[in-house]
């Protein structure tokens, strides 16, 4: 039972009771928490400015309830550019949903916060949506402990240099073009992707947060990496958030089911 202050991302909000707002927050110190902003839907409330997809400093009371109480909030960055078009908004919402799905309550993971701030900032400022969101998404997976071994072929141990490769998201391994046909007869879950997609993914995995949005995935590479990411999330995290479908509709991304070989 204590009052505390934390730098937090507002991931989600929804109306609660008569005039309150229920927030899903992700703080540097506290990790993911649920908090009630009492009276925040009243026009003159000092909490009236709380809205999702923003970075804030919160004054919070943690009592006996599983929900904390938000007592004060100062906006650090509201990323106004995200509201300018549906594409940017959809990528930002997807990242908020991914953080919500991937991390448990009150289990701090402070490294998540700079990646999301950088991603929202890049997308708000006309950075490449798909590249920024997916490469940040892979960094979140890495922080959550998922690190696929997609560097060398699982059978021959060689770095693939030509044709397509097979990425297996069930066992987190990869196959070169020579060993892909062997694998595709098995029961693993995976997909054949171009070498270009693999190289782009590998660069994303070693990115520094200041370089988020680099190594842009365009055209077929973007679609392949979008599909691989979606399948990976579904396999390891569970149900895809609704924002995934929203992104797909906004960006008009067709499923690459035809590339599924495993
Ligand atoms: Zn091989």
UniProtKB/TrEMBL annotation:
Pfam families: RecO_C (PF02565), RecO_N (PF11967)
Signal peptide: none
GO cellular component terms, A-Z: bacterial nucleoid
Domain (DNA replication/recombination mediator RecO N-terminal): residue spans on this chain: 1-79
Record bears the keyword 4Fe-4S: no
Keywords, alphabetical: DNA damage, DNA recombination, DNA repair
InterPro entries: ARFGAP/RecO, DNA_rep/recomb_RecO_N, NA-bd_OB-fold, RecO, RecO_C
Source domain of life: Bacteria
SUPFAM superfamilies recorded: ArfGap/RecO-like zinc finger (SSF57863), Nucleic acid-binding proteins (SSF50249)
BP-aspect Gene Ontology terms: DNA recombination; double-strand break repair
HAMAP family hit by this protein: RecO
PANTHER family on file: DNA REPAIR PROTEIN RECO
NCBIfam families: reco
Primary role: Involved in DNA repair and RecF pathway recombination.
Family designation: Belongs to the RecO family.
UniProt name for this protein: DNA repair protein RecO
Taxonomic source organism: Sulfobacillus benefaciens
Lineage, uppermost ranks: Bacteria, Bacillati, Bacillota, Clostridia, Eubacteriales
